[in-house]
Design a protein that fits this description.
By secondary structure, the chain is mainly alpha-helical. It has 14 helices and 3 strands. Bound molecules: fe (ii) ion (FE2) (2 copies). One fe (ii) ion binds next to α10 and α13. Pfam families: AOX.
Length: 363
Amino acid sequence: MYSTTATAPIRVTSILPKRGLRLTSLRCYSNTACSSGLRSGGFFVQNSNGHHRSQQQTDNKRVFSTTPRTQIKEFFPPPETDHIRDLESSWTHPVFTYKQMRDIKIAHREAKTWSDWVALGTVRMLRWGMDYVTGYKHPAEGEEHKLPRRFIMDERKWLIRFIFLESVAGVPGMVGGMLRHLRSLRKMKRDNGWIETLLEEAYNERMHLLSFMKLAEPGWFMRLMVLGAQGVFFNGFFISYLVSPRTCHRFVGYLEEEAVITYTRAIQEIEDGKLPKWTTMPAPEIAIKYWNMPEGHHTMRDLLLYVRADEAKHREVNHTLGNLNQQTDPNPYVAKYKDDNVPHPSKGADVVRPTGWEREEVI
Ligand SMILES: [Fe+2]
Ligand SMILES: [Fe+2]
C-alpha cells in the first residue's frame, strides 16, 4: 500500500531554499500514475540540485500532518525514466452527477439470517473498539450540541480517521478477488465476473487513501497501527472468506453502511461551518483526475461527496453479492440482461439500491 517509491524522500518542501528554484514545466499525470507512486499533476519546480517537487505541495495542502513540518516528504515523486510519460488505468471511474451524490442516504439492511447477525455483530464490535480506542463519539441526531468537548472533531482528527479506515477498507476486495482467482485456477472453472468487481473495489479504496494521503502524512505511530491492523485484518478476512464468503460480503456491506454514516457526518460538519479549513480548501489533484471532478466542484466537500457515493456503491454491491450463490451465480454488476426495460444493478450511481438486490431480482 505504501510503496517505497511513493514515500521516497525527494525533498523536504519546508526546508527547500527559496532561491535557486525555478519553474521547469507544467505536466499533467493520470490518476494511475499517482496511484502507482509516480507523479501527481501540477507544477513541478526544480532547484539548483536538480530535485523536483510539486508546486502544490508548497501551497496549503498538507497542513494536517502528524509529522513535524520539517520531516514532511514528497509523496508520489516523479519517476526516474527517460521514456515513460504517463500510465493508463484499466479502470475508469463511473461519472457521478452532483444530484446523484446528494441523494445518497444512510441505510441499514436488516439482519435476517445467522450469517447476517455474525457479520453485523462483528462490524458493531469493531466500530465500538475503534471508537473507544480513538476517542470518537458519534452524537445521536439532534444531540450534537451535548457532545463533550474532547469528542469534537476537527479537520486533523477527521483526516487521521479517514486514512486509518481507508487503509483497512482496501483489504476485503483484494482478498476476495484473490481467493476467487485461486479457486478458478484450482478448480479450472470460470469465475463468472466477480473477480474484477472485487479488485476494482480494492483499487477504488486505495484511491480514497491516496487522495487523503496528499493532505496529511501520518507519523510512525499511525503507520505502526496501520501495519498491525493490516496484518490482523488481512489474515482474519482471508480465513473468514475461505469459511464463509457470503458472511464476508455481508460484513463488508455493513462496514460500508458505517462508512456512509461517517462521511455523511463529515459532509454535514463542513456544511455547518464546523470545519472551516475545508470549506474552501481545494481537493488534491489526484482526486480531481480520478473522479473527473467538474470545474467549480473541486473542494474538500466535493471530494467527500464522491467518496461517500463510492462507499454507498460498495454497500450495495456487497449486500447484493451476499445474497447470491457464491459458487455458481454470475456477478450482476457485469451482466448483460435479457430485458433492458427494467432497472438492473449498475456500476454508476444512476441506479442505487442501498440494501442490495435480492437474488430473484438479478439472477
Ligand atoms: Fe473508502
Ligand atoms: Fe468502501
